[in-house]
Amino acid sequence: MLEKKCVTLYTDGACSGNPGAGGWGAILIYNGIERELSGGEAYTTNNRMELMAVIMGLKALKYPCAVEVYSDSAYTVNAFVNGWILSWKENGWKKSDNKAVLNTDLWQELIKLSEMHEVTFKKVKGHADNEYNNRCDALARGAIPKDSK
User: Fold this and answer.
1) 12 catalytic residue (yes or no)
2) Alpha helix positions (H), the chain
3) 105 is catalytic
């Protein structure tokens, strides 16, 4: 059996107002080659853009891969690292306080993509000295639609 390709994925999301116009940015790194991705929505939230960055990065992969995702979003990283996402799913997308989990559509899509790939999540400090996180932030901010109201 062939070993899975190892890919690094840096992601970030941004919003102008929360909710408001938003953008996401991602950088895929494989074998020294970098590919930048970005997109935006007219009306969204910062958390949705954080999730979209990971989703779109994983969707860009052509084959099942071992993926290390680096994000400054505690919301995204902790859901996987702390097992919240599995609890939410088992509890019918309700949190421990019985309130509905927000962004269920994106979490469900992220679960499907995570099952296709071997994904690990790592938290990075935002707006610090990580060049890839800073670049993703710039991509996300640059993708925010300018004329949306």
Assistant:
1) yes
2) 46-59, 74-81, 84-90, 104-116, 131-142
3) no
Asked if 72 is an active-site residue, the reply is yes
Q: How far apart are the first and last CA of the chain?
A: 52
Tell me: the pLDDT tens digits for 27-52?
A: 999 999 999 999 999 999 999 999 99
Judge whether 137 counts as a catalytic residue.
yes
Summarize pLDDT for 7-21 with one digit per residue, the tens.
Answer: 999 999 999 999 999
Three-state secondary structure string covering 93-126: CECCCCCECCCHHHHHHHHHHHHHCEEEEEECCC
Of 143, 145, 141, 139, the closest CA to residue 35 belongs to 139
**Catalytic: which of 12, 23, 57, 117?**
12
Assess whether 13 carries a catalytic annotation.
yes
117 is catalytic: no
Sort 12 into a burial class: Cβ within 10 Å, 0-12 / 13-18 / 19+.
buried
Q: Which amino acid makes up residue 47?
A: N
